[in-house]
Specification:
mainly alpha; 10 helices; DNA-binding; HTH_TetR; transcription regulation
């Protein structure tokens, strides 16, 4: 009996990458990033280890791709919430919505729980993509330093949360939003 091609239809590369990233995301959400290896991912999506390496790369590249995928989902969700807003209100909503979205995302939340300080620096703080997303979501396209600061504040709440969401919001309103208020 002939084995059915696991990538029937459409663009093979795109389908392979999508299937591998989705499979890795499922495993990361279930077991955490440290418990997942290339063999487990290949087995879960029905391909060979070589196919995972060919289309996505090793474990580090795969983790980056899964995190980027989760980040894109989160950014889309937050962008919808901040679209009608501007100024300090947009900054507050962008930050609080980002915190809620990361914490509730099955992959991002799992990765944040297990991430090391070295990885935070490499993948998050040093990420031009994350700074770009922060500039767009907060409406600070002309101030990349402010966007980097926002990224650092959001990350601090992710790693060292306040006792509840309302306190985080009050801290953001009192200390962060004040920096973006304009005199009427």
């Amino acid at each position: 009996m002939a084995q059915q091609d696991w990538l029937v239809g459409d663009n093979r590369r795109r389908l392979a990458v999508r299937r591998i990233i989705d499979g890795a995301a499922d495993l990361i959400a279930r077991d955490g990033i440290d418990a997942v290896d290339i063999d487990a991912i290949a087995e879960s999506v029905g391909c060979s280890r070589a196919t995972v390496y060919r289309y996505v790369g090793g474990k580090s590249a795969l983790a980056d791709a899964v995190l980027a995928d989760a980040g894109a989902r989160i950014a889309e969700d937050v962008a919808r919430q901040v679209k009608p807003l501007d100024g300090a209100e947009r900054v507050v909503v962008a930050m609080t919505a980002s915190l809620a979205a990361v914490r509730s995302d099955r992959v991002a939340g799992q990765m944040i729980d297990r991430i090391t300080p070295k990885t935070v620096t490499r993948m998050l703080i040093g990420s031009p993509e994350l700074t770009s997303i922060a500039k767009e979501l907060t409406g600070m396209a002309d101030d990349p330093l402010a966007a980097q600061w926002i990224v650092r504040v959001v990350l601090s709440f992710l790693f060292w949360p306040a006792t509840d969401d309302a306190i985080e919001r009050r801290i953001i309103e009192r200390f962060v939003a004040q920096s973006f208020r304009t005199e009427a």
